[in-house]
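Duplicate of #3305? Posting structure anyway:
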C-alpha cells in the first residue's frame, strides 16, 4: 500500500492566514482528484465566552476534505502554555508523528496536510517539541504561509532559515491574505519573497477568501496558485 504524501503547513506567525491557505491547498488537491485529509495536531482557543472556531471545521466547510483534530485546549495561547494552565496533558511530538504516519498509510487518502499552530517553533507538547520537530520526524514537505505586509521578509527568512538548519528544504511560500488594494510594501514583498528566500511563491490567497461559499472557494482556489 502506498502511503499518502504528507505536507506540513506552518505560518511565519499567528494570524497569517494559515487555515485558509491549508484549505486552498486541500481544494487544489481535491480539484485534481486527490483524496485529502487535514490533521490539526493541537487546537487552542476553543473555550470561553467567545471561542475560536476549530480550524479543521473551517477547512471541512470550505473544501469537503476529511479532517481530524488530535488535541484541543480552551485558552487562546501556545499549546504548551494552555496545557500547563489547564493542568492538561498533550501528546508528544513523537506520538503526533506516529498518529500522522498511521493516518497516511490507511489507503484512504493521497495527501495528508498537517496544519501547525502559530509559527514553526511554537511548542506542541510539554517536552518542548515543536512543529519543526514534527516536520523533521515525518520527513514531510513544508509550506510556509506568510503575511503580505511590512515585516514579512524578515519573518519568512527566519522561518526558512530555521527549516534549512534542520535539513528541511521548504516547498515554497503561500501569501496568506493578499489585500484587495495592496500598497507599496505588499507589492514589493510579492516580488522580494522569492529573491530573499530562494523559494517560489506557490499561491497568493485573497484577503477574505474564507468568507466565500464552498463551491466558490473551491473554484477560485485553483487560480490562486501560480
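Output from current build:
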Amino acid at each position: 500500500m502506498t502511503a499518502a504524501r504528507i505536507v506540513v503547513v506552518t505560518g511565519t506567525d499567528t494570524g497569517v492566514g494559515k487555515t485558509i491557505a491549508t484549505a486552498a491547498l486541500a481544494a487544489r488537491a481535491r480539484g485534481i482528484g486527490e483524496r485529502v485529509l487535514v490533521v490539526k495536531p493541537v487546537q487552542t482557543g476553543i473555550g470561553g465566552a467567545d471561542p475560536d472556531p476549530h480550524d479543521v471545521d473551517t477547512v471541512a466547510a470550505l473544501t469537503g476534505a476529511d479532517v481530524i483534530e488530535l488535541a484541543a485546549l480552551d485558552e487562546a495561547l501556545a499549546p504548551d502554555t494552555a496545557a500547563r494552565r489547564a493542568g492538561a496533558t498533550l501528546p508528544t511530538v513523537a506520538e503526533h508523528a506516529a498518529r500522522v504516519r498511521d493516518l497516511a498509510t490507511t489507503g484512504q487518502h493521497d495527501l495528508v496536510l498537517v496544519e501547525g499552530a502559530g509559527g514553526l517553533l511554537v511548542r506542541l507538547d510539554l517536552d518542548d517539541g515543536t512543529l519543526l520537530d514534527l516536520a523533521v520526524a515525518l520527513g514531510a514537505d513544508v509550506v510556509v504561509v506568510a503575511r503580505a505586509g511590512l515585516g514579512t521578509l524578515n519573518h519568512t527568512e527566519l522561518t526558512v532559515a530555521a527549516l534549512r538548519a534542520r535539513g528541511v528544504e521548504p516547498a515554497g511560500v503561500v501569501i496568506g491574505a493578499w489585500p484587495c488594494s495592496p500598497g507599496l510594501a505588499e507589492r514589493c514583498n510579492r516580488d522580494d519573497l522569492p529573491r530573499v528566500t530562494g523559494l517560489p511563491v506557490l499561491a497568493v490567497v485573497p484577503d477574505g477568501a474564507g468568507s466565500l461559499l464552498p463551491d466558490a472557494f473551491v473554484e477560485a482556489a485553483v487560480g490562486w496558485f501560480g
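Confirmed duplicate; merging threads. The mean pLDDT is 97. The helical segments are 18-31, 55-63, 79-86, 93-104, 131-138, 152-165, 184-197, 214-221.
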